[in-house]
Amino acid sequence: MGRPIIFKCPQTGVNVQHWLTDEPDPAALGRYEPVVCQACTKMHFVHSRSGKLLGSADRASALK
Q1: Rounded to an integer, what distance in angstroms lies between the CA atom of residue 45 and that of residue 37?
Q2: Is the Cα dihedral 39, 40, 41, 44 positive or negative?
Q3: Are residues 37 and 44 in contact, defined by beta-carbon separation less than 8 angstroms?
Q4: Quick one: which of 5, 42, 56, 58 has the most CB atoms within 10 Å?
Q5: Which backbone phi and psi does 24 adopt, to 5 degrees?
Q6: Tens digit of pLDDT per residue, the chain (64 long)?
Q7: What Å distances lie between residue 29 and 21, 38, 42, 56, CA to CA?
């Protein structure tokens, strides 16, 4: 069984729930996984541990 994550689709603004694997590969910790968004059917990249989107406002403000 996996674990749920919820992210906000950047295209539609809708909260989307997705399931990630329970135990990600130790080599993949801290990486972004491709996820097909149920709201817009586009692919987004979600951080395997935190569930945050690549390029999200939180990440962008942290880089400034």
Answers
A1: 10
A2: negative
A3: yes
A4: 5
A5: -65, 155
A6: 678 889 999 999 999 999 887 665 666 667 888 999 999 999 999 988 788 899 876 544 444 4
A7: 12, 24, 23, 19
User: Alpha-carbon distance 18 to 23, whole Å?
Assistant: 15
CB atoms within 10 A of CB 5: 19
**Alpha-carbon span 23 to 14, nearest angstrom:** 27
| Number of structural domains the chain divides into | 1
Please tell me the pTM assigned to this model: 0.72
- 15: helix, strand or coil: strand
Contact 10, 57 (CB under 8 A): no
As a whole number of angstroms, the distance between CA 64 and CA 48 comes to 23
